[in-house]
Amino acid sequence: MKASEAEILIIPGYTNSGPDHWQSRWETKLSTARRVEQAEWSKPVREDWVAKVAEEVNAATLPVVLVAHSLGIPSAVHAIPLFRKQVVGAFFVAPPEVDNPAVRPRHLMSFGPYPRDPLPFPTVTIASRNDPFGSYEHADDIAAAWGSLLIDAGESGHINAESGHGPWPEGTMVFAQFLSRLKA
């Protein structure tokens, strides 16, 4: 599948993805990409975020590919039962441990726990060994439950602009390869 053959939904996490974040850069470069805009970026409410993801998927006119970062991941996964349009794949980056009481801010725990059923479409999960919001072991466990291909990003922090992943060419290459294997 080519990027032009799918609607690429960019699903940012807590506080949104700023202009230097790889998600924002991809949104600008990919003609069929659009961001899922949340009403409240700094005080996320699970039900609202999940409903907004489902609304955007269900408004699609092409097959959908999800590109979720951090808190966007549980938002997308919890929204799956509400999807009425075809999602052909999901690219998950830096899954937070939303069921860990040590995670801050605490209200992010309302997005946990993750569903553990196998996901109904192909997924890739990319996780860092030193992400302050989620351990690699947690990412490995949840990816295995979902049937997701886990990619070890090494010591890459939260894989965002703050950790030096603005352009993120390695991510672009992995995403392109992932897309090439999807079928509508």
From TrEMBL:
SUPFAM superfamilies: alpha/beta-Hydrolases. It comes from the Bacteria. It holds the Pfam family Ser_hydrolase. Gene3D superfamilies: alpha/beta hydrolase. One of its GO terms (molecular function) is hydrolase activity. This is Serine hydrolase family protein.
